[in-house]
Amino acid sequence: MPTKVPLLDLQAQYESLRPALLEAIDRRLASGAWILGPAVEEFERTLGVDLRVSHAIGVASGTDALLLALKALRIGPGDEVVLPTYTFFATAGAVVNAGARPVFAEMEDDSFNLDPARLEECLTPRTRAVIAVHLFGQSARLDPILSLCRARGIAVIEDAAQAIGATYGETPVGGLGALGCFSFYPTKNLGGAGDGGLVTTQDDELADRVRLLRNHGMRPRYVHHEVGYNSRLDALQATILSVKLAHLESWNAARARHAERYSRLFAPMERIRPPSEIGLGRHVWNQYVIRLRDGNAERRDALRSHLAEHGIGAEIYYPIPLHLQPCFASLGHREGAFPLSEAAAATSLALPVFPEMTDEQQDHVVESIGAWLRA
Questions:
Q1: CA–CA gap between residue 29 and residue 57 (Å, rounded)
Q2: Element (H, E) at 149
Q3: Domain 10-245, what fold?
Q4: Residue 249 burial (C-beta neighbours within 10 Å; 0-12, 13-18, 19+)
Q5: Which one, 45, 279, 293, 344, has the greatest CB density within 10 A?
């Protein structure tokens, strides 16, 4: 049979954990405690220790984590929030849903992350926050971002949705800015069986506001101090994530091995640009994103189709930068406004890098790309 390589093999992960997951799920269902409660609290405590944060607060999704972080900072109408234009839509969507205006910024060409050297030109008297996205599992360059923002009284939110276990230096991401936001969407390095998210902070007051806002602004029961949200992490998801958390370190290590091997195998292919590790800390490789050095969107799409014909999953992250999305047309950006981000959108392709991937599968990916290049 031809070698099949999905972009992500959740079935293989499930089979390796099936007995432990089913036992834990059965125990949780039998308890009748399904909303917040001990399972969520224990998961929050354990992950808070791992991330070295004072507070880890489970919420309904990574998108909600971003929204609640903004609302905890009391960001709303009339405020501006700076974020990279090359990232997943939720980063900007949360800003708009908080009532603020997104201000897009250019990326670094080598890391895909926000370029600190271009940040100051994006700031105005209305800037209340900067969202530093740790894209694809690698930390943004935080020191200059934090330094500039502290001098201006601007909060930094870390969007670590793709970066659980990554570090900036020796410090886990998520605890260096005012708040950190994580996602447990199934494709993440630590993924649930559905949606889930986490907000982290070292600040007691901000943590208290996030806990209040995630549960309808209610404390005690039926006493509502403000209009909040229904954004609680389900106890069942916390139970599943707790089983998986014990394996996160080994999974991240496996992703790093696959990434190193990919880059070694791609080295002779001059037309393939492997992703860079810029040496800021630990990269956890939520995605392994190559770029075609002499490519464009049409050629990249042709490569993706070629891989699909050979049973290989690949995905485009992200085909349209945020400043060119139809819903943001009113902001007035035109093509060419952010050339590095637009070039990345036209030439990048994510390859399978899931922990359970075999060398045979990886060889099939690399050989198929080599055959396409030769053709």
A1: 22
A2: helix 142-152
A3: Aspartate Aminotransferase; domain 2 (3.40.640)
A4: exposed
A5: 344
Encode pLDDT of 84-109 as tens digits. 999 999 999 999 999 999 999 999 99
- Rounded to an integer, what distance in angstroms lies between the CA atom of residue 253 and that of residue 93? 32
Is the overall model pTM greater than 0.85, yes or no?
Answer: yes
Q: Can you name the residues that pair with 84 across neighbouring β-strands? A: 105
Integer distance in angstroms from the first to the last C-alpha of the chain? 24
| CATH, domain range 248-374 | 3.90.1150.10
CB 214 within 8 A of CB 68: yes
Distance CA 294, CA 272 (A): 9
Spell 293-311 as b/e; 16+ CB within 10 A means b. eebeeeebeebbebbeebb
Give start-end residues of each CATH 3.40.640.10 domain in the chain: 10-245
Residues of the chain with CATH 3.90.1150.10: 248-374
CB contact burial 41-76 (16+ within 10 A = b; e otherwise): eebbeebbebbebebbbbbbbbbbbbbbbbbbbebe
Residue-wise pLDDT for 42-72, tens only, equals: 999 999 999 999 999 999 999 999 999 999 9
Count other Cβ atoms within 10 Å, centred on residue 366. Answer: 17
